[in-house]
Structure formats: C-alpha cells, structure tokens
Design goal:
alpha/beta; Rossmann fold; 5 helices; 10 strands; 28% helix; elongated
Length: 192
C-alpha cells in the first residue's frame, strides 16, 4: 500500500543525503525510482540533487506551474516506478502536494518528500504546511544547535552577519547564508 511520506527538518540535517541513500537502496534491488527537485535550486547543478557530503544524482525538475500528477503519470508510461523521491519539497504549492496524494491514492506509487518545515522567520512553507496536513507518514530528521539541543529553526544571515527578520521567503543558499538553531537560540538571534 503506497503512502505519502514527509521527512522534514531544518537546514543541514542531511535530508538530501537520506533521500539519495534511500533511492540507491531501491535501485540496488532492481527497482526504478523517479527523483524530482525544485527547478530553481541549482546549487548542485540544474536538475541535480546534491548533498553536503558530496553525493549527487540527476533528477527531473518541477516549477510552480508543473502538474506533478501528470508529470509522474507521463514518466510511468516509460516503465514502472517503485518510488518517487522529491527534494526541496517545501517549494511545492499546496495544489502540487494534493497532486502527489493523487499519485499515491490513484496510481499506487509511494512518495518520499524531503524538505524544510519552517523558513528563517519561523513560518511554514506552503508545501510543508500542506504535507504536514495530509501526509500519511511524517518523520523529523534531527540535527543539533551549537548548544546540543535539537535544532528546529533556522536563521538567515545578512551581509553584516546579523540574523535577518524579513525578506523573501525563498532564497537558495547553504552554510554561508543559513544557520540551524534550537528555538531558544533562534529567539535570541531574532530578538524575540
């Protein structure tokens, strides 16, 4: 029975590494996978999922106007898919998350979505909010704050090194831009 899974965390928890490892496990057993990533996230190269530890793999891309149900159904015409893996799932729209639910329910293909839960302002991303509402299985991928507590928040640093408290929700970046923190240290950084 297929399910919609959401693996969420903050930055630098190893979500992409876990995705690549899980996809490899399927492929090693002779099962086809279909990997997707947000079109504008080209940190590992256009159409590539990459991890901080150097693993990467080619993936198809999706944008805001992409119908993921149709995209996956069209890919299935080329051959069976054992599982669909989506990196940067927070960048999906609410409608796209419901399209994934249709893939699970109507096409009986499991979906493994990996993404951030909240942005640097402590607000849910649209894709994450929808996944938290309708996913069959949710799993927090843990990472730690500098104090040793579970990091559940992230700050975005400006050019001056200080935490930003406003700006566009989406800005692609890595360790040079974002720092994962526990709620206590996030509050201290943003002045709450």
């Amino acid at each position: 029975m297929a399910k919609l899974h959401f693996h969420y965390s903050t930055m630098n928890a190893g979500k992409s590494t876990l995705l690549l490892q899980a996809a490899h496990n399927y492929n090693e057993r002779g099962m086809e996978t279909y990997l997707l990533i947000a079109a504008f996230d080209d940190r590992a190269g256009k159409g590539r999922i990459g991890s901080r530890i150097g693993l990467s793999r080619e993936a198809d891309v999706f944008g805001d106007n992409c119908d993921l149900f149709e995209k996956i159904r069209n890919r299935m015409e080329e051959g069976p898919i054992a599982c669909v893996f989506i990196d940067e799932a927070q960048f999906m729209t609410r409608d796209q998350v419901w399209q994934l639910a249709r893939v699970v329910d109507d096409l009986n293909v499991p979906i493994m979505a990996y993404g951030l839960r909240v942005d640097f302002r402590g607000e849910l991303f649209p894709g994450s909010a929808a996944l938290l509402a309708i996913a069959d299985v949710m799993r927090e991928v843990r990472t730690i704050c500098h104090c040793g507590r579970n990091a559940t928040m992230v700050i975005r640093r400006g050019a001056d090194g200080k935490a930003l408290t406003d700006g566009a929700q989406v800005q692609v970046g890595g360790n040079e831009t974002y720092v994962s923190l526990c709620r206590r240290h996030w509050r201290a950084e943003v002045g709450l």
